[in-house]
Amino acid sequence: MSVQKQIDDQFIAARPHRDAIHAASDDLAAAFRLAPEAVWPVANENTTPNRLQPALKRALDLMIAIPLLVLCAPLFAVLAAIILLDSGGPVFFRQTRLGAGGQPFDVFKFRTMRVMENGDTVVQATRNDSRVTRSGSWLRSTSLDELPQLLNIIAGDMSLVGPRPHARAHDIFYAARIADYTQRQDVKPGVTGWAQINGHRGETPTVDAMRERVDLDIWYARNASLALDLQILLRTPFAVLSRRNAY
Question: Mean of the pLDDT values across residues 224-235?
């Protein structure tokens, strides 16, 4: 029996009727002790390799992320001051997430909540969530809280375009409940993605809701190209301005 099948059976047996994931799963700690390669397949295992595509994608990331980080430096200072005045420090929120091939990295965001969850207890934000600060509500609705991920792009952990990285606890949870879930990690995670421009932002209160998002993520992983990335980047401002499910 494969390691993945053992994990699936263990998780499903432990929570056979669980749909919502607002409360954290208690059976995740053991899975965290597994090496990523024991749970996640080799990156690009399900796609046709293209040696030029990663280089072009990386070049596009750096050509946009580095100048944008420089241009946004004054905005960073203003947002940091707003956060400090509103709720005190820290300014940044850091959380372990899983990137291509299930490799862990620390994602950076402007802090929007009064809690700093990172581990096997991570609860999704909901509408009118009492944990969200006053400035955090505005930052989340405008997606300005995501700006520090320019640092993740420059470091090479993320791309401008790709499936949004989920909290590690949620990755472990959903990998046991959604077929082919891990195929979304065949590519680097992104600040924006195919799912987001197609209306799948924010909360996923049920497994079915997450499955709809994952289907779009997997489609992107199988069809990723520079032309598609440019299309997604052009459509992203309209998705942000719509503020659909952004809270």
Answer: 94
